[in-house]
Amino acid sequence: KTSKVQYFNNPMWPGEAHSLKVEKILFQGKSPYQEILVFESSTYGNVLVLDGIVQLTDKDECAYQEMVTHLPLCSIPSPKNVLVVGGGDGGVLREIAKHDSVQTIDICEIDQLVINVCKDYFPHLYVGYEDPRVQLHVGDAVDFLRNAPEGKYDAIIVDSSDPIGPAQELVEKPFFQTIARALKPGGVLCNLAESMWLHTHLIQDMLSICRETFKGAIHYAWTSVPTYPSGVIGFLLCAKEGPPVNFLTPVNPIEKLVGDTIAGKEMRFYNSEIHRAAFILPTFVRKELEAH
Ligand SMILES: NCCCN[C@H]1CC[C@H](N)CC1
After folding, report:
1. If 0-12 CB within 10 Å is exposed, 13-18 middle and 19+ buried, where does residue 27 land?
2. Phi/psi of residue 42, each to 5°?
3. Quick check: CB of 225 below 6 Å from ligand 1?
4. Phi/psi zone of residue 226: left (φ > 0), alpha (ψ -120 to 50 degrees), beta?
5. What would the pLDDT profile of 261-273 be if each residue is shown by its tens digit?
6. Residue of 60, 89, 159, 162 marked active site
7. Would you call 94 helix, strand, or coil by DSSP?
8. How much is the pTM?
């Protein structure tokens, strides 16, 4: 019994397909925003698929959730107020909760059905909602940010799906402008920024929008996620304004890193060396991103 998660006809990665062996379909449904599928795979645990695109698997979700969270939160001395755009599965909430300095965690997820499904099939991700600092807002992040108080957040993490479908407007300039307005002067944005192998044009477009919108440091980082197309995913880290945040070395490695846990806060992927390494780019990427 095998089933392909088809990418062939997806304009984000034409001509590619990635197959995962399916043991059992656990949930299949349609929300007002997207098709939702959860299946038990033979080798990657449970898998969440939205509109035919793998969002996360039990086996490799740690790479994405830990990096998208700790790259920004460890780049600033003491993050207090954090916003997650998307992230309905709860994984990023679980990671933010490891930072004792954080006082409030807002999350704005558009699709309640994704939240309900993750509660049933991804308990080790959904655990993120149990933290008392979490405040869930179900709705469109564009509206949420337009109404957010100016200068409220130390960090904003955009943990969205790909910019085709509900997340399309999350890569347009007006959205980045509302993010900049909602950030504190020393605040940082970490945005999903696709694959260096597949999407350098999209990354260049996002980079130029960010260079117009954020006055501080702007860096592209990347990590390995085997079940994402091309096996890597990128992040765009932007500082609202100077003094330039030094994204390259973690200032706040969540207390002392002891072995692979951080003061009892278990990490499966992130550590301060891989934080630095994430910003080191292959030559072709450096050329293509600096050219713009
Ligand atoms: N919180 C789950 C991760 C969602 N991030 C995206 C999933 C789909 C990928 N093509 C890009 C990252």
Report:
1. middle
2. -75, -30
3. no
4. alpha
5. 554 578 899 988 9
6. 159
7. helix
8. 0.94
